Amino acid sequence: MTEDRTGMPKQTPLGWPPRTRRELLVKTLWIGVWLVFLSAPVEDLVNGGHGTAATVAGSLGLAVFVGAYLTLVFRNIGRPFSPRVVLTLGGILGVLAPVLAYTLGSAWLGLFVYLSVAWGATLPLRAAYWAIPASALAMYLVGLHSDEKEARGLLFLVVLIGFAMTGVGQLVRTTIELRKARATVAQLAANEERLRLARDLHDLLGHSLSLITLKSELAGRMLPDHPDKAAQQVADIEQVSRQALVDVREAVTGYRRPRLAAELAGAQVALSAAGVVAEVPAEPDLTDVPEEAESALAWALREAVTNVVRHSGAGRCAVRLLRRQTLDGPVLELCVEDDGSGGSGKGPGNGLTGLTERLEKAGGTLEAGRVRHGFRLVARVPTAAGADVGSGA
Description:
The protein is of the alpha+beta class. Helix content is 65%, strand content 10%. The chain is built from eleven helices and five strands, in the order αααααααααβαββαββ. β4 (365-371) and β5 (374-382) form a beta hairpin. α4 (83-104) packs parallel to α6 (125-146). The longest helix is centred in the middle third of the chain and has 75 residues, at 148-222.
C-alpha cells in the first residue's frame, strides 16, 4: 500500500469528537436532521398571522432555543460539558419550550421533542428518568390551552424519543470511558515493558560490570609487582566485556524484533479503533518458521495496517495467513486486502520500498497494488513444509 493514499475512515468512531471537516459534516447532518420538527414553528411565524412584536419575539426565542439545543447536544456528545453548563443550557430549553408553545400556539409543541432529546442525551440517568416525563406532562398541560388533540398525539413521541436518547447518551459515555481505559492500559503496558527491559539489562550487566570492577581493582594492585598476573586479569576483563556486549546485543535485538502474534492482535485493535470492520486470524501456528521470516511478515503486517488506517478510507479489511506450496518450495503467505478507495499514487512509497528490501533479506517477496474493489498486499517468505496456519475469513 503506497504512502500517498488519501482518505479517512468512512465512519466517525462513536464517542469521538469530529477530527476532520468530513466528520464534522456527517455529525452535523446526523444531528440536524431532527430539526425537521421546526417546520411547524417556522411556518407559524410566516403564515400564523401574529403581530410584528410576537413574530420578532418568536423568531428570537426560536433562534436561542435552536442554538442552545445544538450547542448542548452537538458538543456534549464526545466532549461533555461540565454539569453546571449542562444544567444551564437545559434550563434555557426548559423555559423557552413552554413559554413559546403557550404564547404562540400548538404549532410550537414540537419544541418539547427537542427538550426531551436534549435531556435524555445529556442528563444523568436518574435525572433523565424524572425530567423526560416532566417535559411530556408540561407539554400536555400547555396543549390544553391551545390544542389538546395535538398534545395527545405528541405525548407518546416525547416520552419514547427521550428515553431512547438516554440509551444513546449512556452508550456514548460508556465508549468514552472505554477509550480512556484503553489509553490507560496502553500506558501501563508501556511502563511495564520499560520496567522489564530495565530488569533484564540489570540481570545481564549487573554481574558482568561487578566482575569487571573487581578485576580492574585487582589488576591495579598487581600491576607494580606482578605485571604478568595483572595482564591475565586484563585479559579476563576483555573476555567478560565481550560477553556482556554480546548479551546486550541479543537482548536489544529481541526487543526490537516484532512478533507476528503480537502484530495480529495490534492490527485487530488498530482497525477496530479506526472504524474498519476487521477480519484477523487467531494466533497462528509458526512451527518451523524462522525468526527472521516471522519478523519480516510482522513488519509487513504493521506497514499494511498502518496504511489502511491512515490512507485507504476503507470500511473493511481482511488479513489472511496461509502456508502454500510453490515451485520454489513451501512459503508462508500474508495477505492484507481492503476495500478502500484512496488513490494509489505514482509509485511505491518509502515504507513499501523498505519492506521489499526487508523481505528480500529473508528470501521472501512482496506484491502490492490495486484490485477490483480495493487494495491488496501479499508478502511471502520461505518456510519448512507444514500444515495450514489458517484464514482470517
